[in-house]
Structure to design on (511 residues):
């Protein structure tokens, strides 16, 4: 490692200008907020003084970049301060207590959460490690969701600067990013971060494929840009003719890793990736979304099966929009996504959008996870958040025990179970392996013959507990579900699929 970083007479790292963070913020910051953030920067800068990253840059450039990412997604002053301070207790002489005294309990809790998350160790089998990580993330989320958001920003910057690390480390970190951090960003609906994490991980995990896809993308963009501009101009004219106000319209190309996934399905033929280009249309109200869709369909024929109403049926992570794919001018195919400004912010920043819209009010973030059921039941939420904090204090270091406690009260009417590869399945309380099987796929449900919960055989009417890993055993010989399952299946989707399969069986018999 080379020279010591230079500091000016105030001890500040001169290459960094805190105003950059203020400018990057999605939310306007008051002078009081700016002062708070500036203080945190000065504190962190002094604490890390003399430390260098692997790249040779002053360490503080990392903390600064993390805070900048957090500002870009519109987080509050405590989160930005915690972003600046997140590596202080771990890597410097300054302690968590000092941070608490200086910046208050909120920032202290956040920095503490990050420090704990960073202590995750690789041990046991790969699968076990993966689940352990997911669980810890959930625990951290329960305490304060902002911890996880800071962690994502931290990982994003580490991925952006991964070149400085040795090859084996690059690969391990990229894999972990793809399998865990991108999944969590997705779960939180922060698609901006999820997309960039995936693309960066892709670059290190499959460099040759990455280069190939990049080349395909760039060629395609070159030939598509002019067309896209024409189409957007036409759409503007069309829609205003129909009296629909457009707040914004722009085109985007698919992210590289997502493009790669699609290309693999279509023999690497980019012409068959219909949503390579998507036009985003932002209109004022929900009703305008549907009107715009009608107006577009009136002129351009939609592709069968590609009209998706995520407004009435949001994706599990809360994503809302109308999607359609149409044969545009010159018969070229493209996708249109129609949404309101609020939906747009939530689509890009997910749970983080919450801080863009409201100054205060942690707790509300749960509506992103449970948009239907739990929205509006706030007093209860606050109660369980404080309950969780109590437990965490009591149990302290033993995560396993804490997780057990969590199973009892957390998500009173909801449980999360995991597939063996770590996918999260959300179920109602008292759900059984049959519900779990149908939640994955009706074919899995129909052919289910047994189940394992955390590795142990359990009957199909077993009541799944929160956090368990459920494996469904299937047999081809079993053609139809057992009618008795109706007595214990909990989800309406499982019940209706069982009934449907039984009707099919009757029809088959009476043929
Ligand atoms: Mn860090």
């Amino acid at each position: 490692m080379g020279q010591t970083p230079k500091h000016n007479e105030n001890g500040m790292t001169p290459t960094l200008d805190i105003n950059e963070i203020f400018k990057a913020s999605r939310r306007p910051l008051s002078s009081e907020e700016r002062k708070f953030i500036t203080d945190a920067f000065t504190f962190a800068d002094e604490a890390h003084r003399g430390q260098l990253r692997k790249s040779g840059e002053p360490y503080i450039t990392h903390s600064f970049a993390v805070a900048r990412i957090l500002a870009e997604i519109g987080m509050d002053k405590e989160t930005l301060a915690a972003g600046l301070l997140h590596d202080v207790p771990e890597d410097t002489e300054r302690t968590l207590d000092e941070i608490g005294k200086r910046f208050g309990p909120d920032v202290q809790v956040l920095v503490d959460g990050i420090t704990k998350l960073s202590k995750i160790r690789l041990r046991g089998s790969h699968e076990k490690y993966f689940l352990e990580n997911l669980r810890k993330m959930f625990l951290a989320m329960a305490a304060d969701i902002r911890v996880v958001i800071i962690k994502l920003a931290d990982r994003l910057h580490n991925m952006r600067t991964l070149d400085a690390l040795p090859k084996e480390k690059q690969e391990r970190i990229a894999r972990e990013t793809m399998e865990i951090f991108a999944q969590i960003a997705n779960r939180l609906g922060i698609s901006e971060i999820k997309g960039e994490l995936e693309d960066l991980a892709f670059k290190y995990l499959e460099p040759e494929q990455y280069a190939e896809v990049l080349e395909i993308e760039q060629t395609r963009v070159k030939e598509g840009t002019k067309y896209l501009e024409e189409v957007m101009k036409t759409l503007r004219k069309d829609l205003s003719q129909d009296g629909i106000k457009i707040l914004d319209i722009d085109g985007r190309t698919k992210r590289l890793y997502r493009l790669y996934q699609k290309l693999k399905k279509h023999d690497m033929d980019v012409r068959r990736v219909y949503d390579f280009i998507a036009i985003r249309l932002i209109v004022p109200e929900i009703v305008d979304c549907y009107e715009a869709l009608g107006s577009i369909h009136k002129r351009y024929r939609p592709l069968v099966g590609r009209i998706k109403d995520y407004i009435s049926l949001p994706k599990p992570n809360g994503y809302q929009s109308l999607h359609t794919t149409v044969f545009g001018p010159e018969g070229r195919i493209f996708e249109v996504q129609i949404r309101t400004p609020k939906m747009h912010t939530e689509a890009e920043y997910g749970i983080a959008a919450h801080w863009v819209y409201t100054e205060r009010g942690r707790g509300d973030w749960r509506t992103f996870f449970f948009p239907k059921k739990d929205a509006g039941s706030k007093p209860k939420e606050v109660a369980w958040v404080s309950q969780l904090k109590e437990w965490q204090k009591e149990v302290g270091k033993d995560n396993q025990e804490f997780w057990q406690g969590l199973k009892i009260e957390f998500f009173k009417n909801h449980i999360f179970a995991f597939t063996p590869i770590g996918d999260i399945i959300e179920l109602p309380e008292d759900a059984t392996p049959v519900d779990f099987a149908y939640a994955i796929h009706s074919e899995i449900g129909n052919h289910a013959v047994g189940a394992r919960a955390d590795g142990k055989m359990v009957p199909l009417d077993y009541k799944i507990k929160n956090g368990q890993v459920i494996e469904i055993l299937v047999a081809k010989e079993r053609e139809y579900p057992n009618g008795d399952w109706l007595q214990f299946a909990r989800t309406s989707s499982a019940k209706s699929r069982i009934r449907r399969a039984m009707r099919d069986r009757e029809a088959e018999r009476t043929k």
In short: The pocket of manganese (II) ion is lined by residues 62, 86-87, 154 (CB under 6 Å).
